[in-house]
Protein backbone atom coordinates (compact mmCIF):
# COMPACT_ATOMS: atom_id res chain seq x y z
CA UNK A 1 0.00 0.00 0.00
CA UNK A 2 1.23 3.49 -0.83
CA UNK A 3 1.99 6.01 1.83
CA UNK A 4 -1.26 7.98 2.45
CA UNK A 5 0.67 11.26 2.13
CA UNK A 6 1.95 10.32 -1.36
CA UNK A 7 -0.70 12.40 -3.12
CA UNK A 8 0.21 15.48 -1.06
CA UNK A 9 3.23 16.00 -3.37
CA UNK A 10 1.08 16.76 -6.40
CA UNK A 11 -1.41 18.79 -4.34
CA UNK A 12 1.08 21.46 -3.21
CA UNK A 13 0.11 25.13 -3.21
CA UNK A 14 1.13 26.72 -6.52
CA UNK A 15 0.92 23.56 -8.64
CA UNK A 16 -0.89 24.26 -11.93
CA UNK A 17 -2.50 22.04 -14.53
CA UNK A 18 -3.76 23.09 -17.97
CA UNK A 19 -6.62 20.97 -19.34
CA UNK A 20 -8.39 20.86 -22.67
CA UNK A 21 -12.12 20.11 -22.51
CA UNK A 22 -14.31 18.73 -25.30
CA UNK A 23 -18.10 18.63 -25.01
CA UNK A 24 -20.41 16.97 -27.55
CA UNK A 25 -24.16 17.14 -27.13
CA UNK A 26 -27.46 17.62 -28.92
CA UNK A 27 -29.05 15.12 -31.25
CA UNK A 28 -28.34 13.74 -34.73
CA UNK A 29 -30.20 16.57 -36.44
CA UNK A 30 -28.68 19.37 -34.35
CA UNK A 31 -25.35 18.29 -32.89
CA UNK A 32 -23.46 20.72 -30.66
CA UNK A 33 -19.78 20.74 -29.78
CA UNK A 34 -17.51 22.96 -27.72
CA UNK A 35 -13.86 23.06 -26.75
CA UNK A 36 -12.23 25.17 -24.07
CA UNK A 37 -9.11 25.27 -21.92
CA UNK A 38 -8.78 25.81 -18.18
CA UNK A 39 -5.86 26.36 -15.85
CA UNK A 40 -6.40 24.77 -12.45
CA UNK A 41 -4.22 25.98 -9.54
CA UNK A 42 -3.85 24.78 -5.95
CA UNK A 43 -4.44 27.93 -3.87
CA UNK A 44 -4.29 26.60 -0.33
CA UNK A 45 -4.43 23.71 2.09
CA UNK A 46 -6.34 23.36 5.34
CA UNK A 47 -5.68 20.54 7.81
CA UNK A 48 -8.85 19.42 9.58
CA UNK A 49 -9.50 16.37 11.79
CA UNK A 50 -10.95 14.51 8.77
CA UNK A 51 -7.84 15.01 6.61
CA UNK A 52 -6.31 17.60 4.33
CA UNK A 53 -8.54 19.97 2.33
CA UNK A 54 -6.91 21.20 -0.87
CA UNK A 55 -8.36 24.45 -2.26
CA UNK A 56 -8.44 25.05 -6.04
CA UNK A 57 -9.07 27.94 -8.43
CA UNK A 58 -9.87 27.78 -12.14
CA UNK A 59 -9.19 30.26 -14.97
CA UNK A 60 -11.05 29.69 -18.24
CA UNK A 61 -9.85 30.45 -21.75
CA UNK A 62 -10.88 29.59 -25.30
CA UNK A 63 -14.44 29.47 -24.01
CA UNK A 64 -17.10 28.85 -26.62
CA UNK A 65 -19.64 27.13 -24.40
CA UNK A 66 -19.19 25.31 -21.12
CA UNK A 67 -21.85 24.20 -18.68
CA UNK A 68 -21.41 26.43 -15.62
CA UNK A 69 -21.83 23.45 -13.27
CA UNK A 70 -18.90 21.74 -14.97
CA UNK A 71 -16.61 24.74 -14.53
CA UNK A 72 -17.74 25.05 -10.88
CA UNK A 73 -16.96 21.36 -10.34
CA UNK A 74 -13.34 21.92 -11.38
CA UNK A 75 -12.85 24.57 -8.67
CA UNK A 76 -14.32 22.62 -5.74
CA UNK A 77 -11.94 21.50 -2.99
CA UNK A 78 -10.45 18.05 -2.58
CA UNK A 79 -10.41 16.17 0.71
CA UNK A 80 -7.47 13.81 1.18
CA UNK A 81 -8.68 11.25 3.73
CA UNK A 82 -6.93 7.95 4.54
CA UNK A 83 -5.01 7.94 1.27
CA UNK A 84 -8.07 8.71 -0.90
CA UNK A 85 -8.90 11.93 -2.76
CA UNK A 86 -12.53 13.12 -2.76
CA UNK A 87 -14.14 16.07 -4.51
CA UNK A 88 -16.17 17.58 -1.65
CA UNK A 89 -18.06 20.26 -3.58
CA UNK A 90 -20.89 21.68 -1.50
CA UNK A 91 -19.60 19.80 1.53
CA UNK A 92 -16.98 22.50 2.28
CA UNK A 93 -17.79 25.69 4.16
CA UNK A 94 -15.26 28.25 2.84
CA UNK A 95 -16.10 30.80 5.52
CA UNK A 96 -15.59 28.47 8.50
CA UNK A 97 -12.90 26.29 6.85
CA UNK A 98 -14.73 23.13 7.87
CA UNK A 99 -16.86 20.37 6.41
CA UNK A 100 -20.56 21.20 6.30
CA UNK A 101 -21.41 17.87 7.88
CA UNK A 102 -18.98 16.75 10.62
CA UNK A 103 -18.14 13.08 11.13
CA UNK A 104 -20.77 11.01 12.89
CA UNK A 105 -20.21 9.64 16.38
CA UNK A 106 -19.24 6.26 14.95
CA UNK A 107 -16.50 7.97 12.87
CA UNK A 108 -18.22 7.63 9.48
CA UNK A 109 -17.62 10.57 7.17
CA UNK A 110 -20.20 11.63 4.57
CA UNK A 111 -18.55 13.28 1.60
CA UNK A 112 -20.84 15.49 -0.47
CA UNK A 113 -20.39 15.08 -4.18
CA UNK A 114 -22.24 16.53 -7.14
CA UNK A 115 -23.97 14.03 -9.42
CA UNK A 116 -22.33 14.22 -12.83
CA UNK A 117 -25.43 13.17 -14.74
CA UNK A 118 -28.15 10.56 -14.76
CA UNK A 119 -27.68 7.61 -17.06
CA UNK A 120 -24.01 8.32 -17.53
CA UNK A 121 -20.66 7.06 -16.36
CA UNK A 122 -17.44 8.95 -15.83
CA UNK A 123 -13.94 7.51 -15.88
CA UNK A 124 -11.10 9.42 -14.23
CA UNK A 125 -7.40 8.64 -14.68
CA UNK A 126 -4.70 9.69 -12.18
CA UNK A 127 -0.94 9.60 -12.61
CA UNK A 128 1.42 9.41 -9.63
CA UNK A 129 3.07 12.74 -8.81
CA UNK A 130 0.86 14.55 -11.37
CA UNK A 131 -2.82 14.16 -10.44
CA UNK A 132 -5.82 13.91 -12.78
CA UNK A 133 -4.63 13.34 -16.36
CA UNK A 134 -7.95 12.58 -18.07
CA UNK A 135 -11.71 12.34 -17.52
CA UNK A 136 -14.22 10.85 -19.93
CA UNK A 137 -18.00 10.92 -19.53
CA UNK A 138 -20.60 9.38 -21.79
CA UNK A 139 -24.34 9.50 -21.24
CA UNK A 140 -26.32 6.40 -22.08
CA UNK A 141 -29.66 7.45 -23.50
CA UNK A 142 -29.45 10.95 -24.89
CA UNK A 143 -26.26 12.07 -26.56
CA UNK A 144 -23.72 13.67 -24.26
CA UNK A 145 -20.01 13.10 -24.27
CA UNK A 146 -17.36 15.00 -22.36
CA UNK A 147 -13.57 14.63 -22.31
CA UNK A 148 -10.99 16.47 -20.21
CA UNK A 149 -7.31 15.89 -21.07
CA UNK A 150 -4.24 17.22 -19.30
CA UNK A 151 -2.17 19.49 -21.55
CA UNK A 152 0.50 20.45 -19.02
CA UNK A 153 1.44 20.24 -15.33
CA UNK A 154 3.68 22.84 -13.67
CA UNK A 155 4.74 22.15 -10.07
CA UNK A 156 4.74 25.16 -7.77
CA UNK A 157 7.91 26.78 -6.50
Explain this structure.
By secondary structure, the protein is mainly β. It has one domain (6-154). The protein is built from one helix and ten strands. It has one helix at 68-73; strands at 16-26, 31-48, 51-61, 78-81, 84-87, 92-93, 98-99, 120-127, 131-139, 143-154. Strands 5-4-3-2-1-10-9-8 form an eight-stranded antiparallel beta sheet. It has a two-stranded antiparallel sheet with strand order 6-7. A hairpin with a 3-residue loop joins β9 and β10 (143-154). The longest helix has 6 residues, at 68-73. The chain is globular. It starts with 15 loop residues before the first strand and ends with a strand. The model is unreliable at 1-5 (pLDDT under 50).
Counted up, domains total: 1
Q: What form results from the Cα inertia axes?
A: globular
Summing up helix and strand content along with how strands pair, one would put the structural category as mainly beta
Percentage beta strand:
over 45%
H and E order: EEEHEEEEEEE
In angstroms, what is the radius of gyration? 17 Å
Stretches where pLDDT is under 50 for at least 5 consecutive residues are: 1-5
Number of strands: 10
Fraction of residues in helix: under 10%
Please state the average pLDDT score. 76
**N-end to C-end Cα span:** 29 Å
Total number of helices: 1
Largest sheet: 8 strands, antiparallel
Strand order of the largest sheet: 5-4-3-2-1-10-9-8
Amino acid sequence: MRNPTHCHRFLKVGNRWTYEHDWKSGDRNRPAAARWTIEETITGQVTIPEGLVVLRAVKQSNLTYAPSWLIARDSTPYLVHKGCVYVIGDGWNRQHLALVEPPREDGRLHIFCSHFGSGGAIDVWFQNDVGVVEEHYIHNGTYDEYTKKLLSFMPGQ
